[in-house]
Amino acid sequence: MTRRPLPGPAGRAAGALALAAALAAATAPPAGAAARPSVPTIKVVDGETQPVFSRADAVTQTVDIETEVDSDRDGVRDRVRLRIMRPKETDRGLRVPTILEPSPYWAGVHDDVPMHPVDIGGAQARSRAAVQRNLAEIFPGYYDNYFLPRGYAVANLDSIGTGGSTGCPTSGDRAEQAGTKAAVDWLNGRARGWAPDGTPVKATWSTGSVGMIGQSYNGTLPNMAAAGGVTGLKAIVPIAAISSWYDYYRANGGVVAPGGYQGEDLDVLAKVVLTRANPEVCAKVIDELTAAQDRETGDYGRVWAERDYVRDARNVKAAVMVVHGLNDWNVKVKNSVQWWNALKEAGVPRKLWLHQGDHATPFRWRVEEWLRQTHHWFDRWLYGIRNGITAEPRVDIERAPGRWETARDWPVPGTRTVPLSLNAGAQGQPGVLSPRPRPGAPQSMVDAGRTRTAEELLAGEDRADPNRLVYLTAELTEAVRVNGIPRMSVRASFDGGSAGADPGERSPYLTALLVDYGTDTRPTGARVDTGERVCFGEGVPGDDGCTTRLALRTETAPFKIVTRGWLDVRNRHGAGRTEPIAPGREYTFAWDLEPTDYVFKPGHRIGVVVLSTDYDFTLRYPAGTRLTLRPGSSSLLFPMAPGGSLEGLG
Fold this sequence. Notes:
By secondary structure, this protein is of the alpha/beta class.
């Protein structure tokens, strides 16, 4: 095992600025007067704050903060608990900004909450077993060692209904938003707070500038706080975070699970994180959530609009550094990409990291650069230091494990949409994926229901399979990069009871998989321990200020699902509108796949696989839906980055 200290960041921007909030003017006392003790200050060198304060001597405090809501309906405003660690010099006049991680997980979770049933039909009444959650991956635990010595307070917040807070967890609605807002308000003197003994407490040491950072739910809470437009929230770093809960638990009118959590929904998650005292007071609130979430139609409605922060992007006052894994099928990439696009439209300062991990933070395998950029991000927006971070390339993309590229925007400028037609093959199936449409006889498949996974259905691509349709390009002669949001347009009919008068009979789903066919070694998204210790901050007993560097796991396989997407065909006119379809009648169905950034190598083939039930994500109806697709009238709209060509594929 090697142990290597973290090197100091290089390539600083222009020199240090005078910081009005932190630097006091030095004046000579009158003759004969006693000298006043100097006010401590931060130190800035080469455009960044320096580690001059002691983590070991830090002051800690706990504050219960009054919110503006009463989510548990007990007649008293909810309170959220904030735990703070700050330099001891803040008791002698030093005023500092705060880096805050809000979370529903600080008090743990209930891992015994059963999931909703997903096998529709005879097994419909059976709930699925609870899923164990690995919270260790969500908390990197370095903020106190790294940021506190550089002149920041660090804090964690129990979100509403969890840990030491009151109220009821409601999976992302405006009440939870009020909890994070209250913390920012207290740090700015606009909300009341009390110590555990009931003594009123004010944040006299706070500059009022607040940053938030976190992964998964811990990153979603900063998104919702920013969408509320709270004054004082200056910067956030949401990692693998939700921007619309509809796109976490639904897709295009269909009930679609987060990867690894089949059967979870708003109410299940609320029960999982309900760790406050006297949790029984929230039973009615969560029962109402169960009724409102609508697992029957999957339509976008009021309950989802209340949990859609994308609609409120123009309220955002904080600079946003968006981080997401291209192999994340828990919080899918759409959540970050639609947030990124909305922030661009709103003119919000922003950065983007797209990495090859799954539901994870790249801190553990790109330690040095992660700390450099997040440090400069918070220095720029919380201390006002013009360190050049906003002049750097806006986007970092991990192309392969450990190999990163930068770009000025994403999708990369010059990306264009190339239509690829789903054509019949010489023997019908497998079909051909080509820039030139060729009309052909209709092709049919019968849904396998809950008997076969997507991975099983896409194997054996060179032969026909009764349970899916596949369309393949010729072998590529040059690398081709998909970069953005692929879209499907399919002319097809459904039969066999699917989505007709009784939608419970057969599957109403249309699923498309974009597949890289060709044996290769690719990242899976998982991580492995390298054994190398990297030290990044001041250690204290029980916490050495170091971490173990990880590396991305790879596997050699004949194919990879690059991205996928789903549509409930009854929602062909929009996610908020269910309309039955006539069995056997042709319709045009259009839907997006999840955003992606991926390079298909020379010698590989691009494949589109069309099926109905997606075992690990959709509800699983009884087998039997017949899908009949019209070749030549169906296509994949492929967002291709500059430098590639698909013209020679027939």
